[in-house]
Amino acid sequence: MNIGIFDSGVGGLIMTRALVKHLPQYDYVYVGDTKRVPYGNRSHNEVHQFLKEGVAYLFKKKDCKLVIVACNTASARALRQIQKKYLPKYFPDRKVLGVIIPAAEETLKGKRIGILGTVATVKSKTYLVEIQKLNPRAEVFQLAAPSLVTDIEKGDTKAMKESFRKYLAPLLEKKIDTLVLGCTHYPIGKTFVRKIARLGGQVGKKVHVISQDEFIPKKTADYLKRHPEIKSELSKNHTRHIYLTKETKTVDTLAKKWFGQNIKIETVKLG
Ligand code: DGL
After folding, report:
1. Tens digit of each residue's pLDDT (9 = 90 or more) over 104-156
2. Nearest Cα to Cα of residue 82 among 49, 107, 120
3. In this structure, which of 1, 23, 189, 254 has its CB flanked by the most CB atoms within 10 Å?
4. Parallel, antiparallel, or unpaired for β 208-210 and 240-244?
5. How is domain 2-98+214-267 classified at the architecture level of CATH?
6. Cβ of 148 less than 6 Å from ligand 1
7. What is the DSSP string of 5-49?
8. What positions carry a catalytic annotation?
């Protein structure tokens, strides 16, 4: 059986690349809902419905044993409901994992923590709640970055850099020591973010930038070690499949660059 990855767009591709690098032996199926991106400006009910459709597709049609919800917005808005209600009823032998609690676990050393995320993620306060559970003395500052996902989906590097600069300024003014890139799309600009954070952070102090592609693969490996009943069902043929709800130039270019010219990208309908 396969490992599924679900996201609204380019972000999931970044996560797929990171997983493939760390755990190359497994078979991966990535579904990106590029037709309905951005999720970050959508309602709770819409995101919940979209996530349900993505997960059902990966379980029913693509034989996934485990789905990683790479999308922070979907993890924040709908994951718990899916894990508590939908899975036990429809797919009791499958698992769905999110990215927010693992990211919160990475902030333990932080005292002043900045979260950059979509409007929906920030509104949900999921990061705030999860970080304060683990690190109650930390001060958490959230900021929504409504235009970033669109810049990244368009592959517009100049606009992306301008947006990062604009959104990071108020967080750096709060003298944060830790910054969570709270959206799967943001790691594509992490080198630039680290540069800005170095220049704009407290003089002489480094801002620790937390990028999910750098630890989710390792946490997935740990999870599989702790869950041999899941691990033993995963096939190991080194295959990678990409499905999008709408073809996009950015995903096409990056997929070919990261997975080779022969990678097949197919269009699917969800729901
Ligand atoms: N990539 C998703 C996230 O991590 C959502 C971006 C969007 O579709 O707005 O939040």
Report:
1. 999 999 999 999 999 999 999 999 999 999 999 999 999 999 999 999 999 99
2. 49
3. 189
4. unpaired
5. 3-Layer(aba) Sandwich (3.40)
6. no
7. EEESSHHHHHHHHHHHHHSTTS-EEEEE-TTT---TTS-HHHHHH
8. 71, 183
CA dihedral sign of residues 168, 16, 72, 33: positive
Provide CB contacts within 8 A for 182, sequence distance 6+: 72, 100, 103, 115, 116, 117, 118, 121, 127
Structure confidence by residue, pLDDT tens digits, 175-207: 999 999 999 999 999 999 999 988 776 655 689
Condensed to tens digits (0 to 9), the pLDDT of residues 28-78 reads 999 999 999 999 989 999 999 999 999 999 999 999 999 999 999 999 989
User: What's the CA-to-centroid distance between 21 and ligand 1, angstroms?
Assistant: 22
- Whose tokens are 């890139």? That residue is 181
Residue (of 131, 147, 149, 151) closest to 139 by Cα position: 131
The answer as to CATH 1.10.3720.10 being correct for domain 101-211 is no
Going by alpha carbons, the residue nearest to atom 2 of ligand 1 is 71
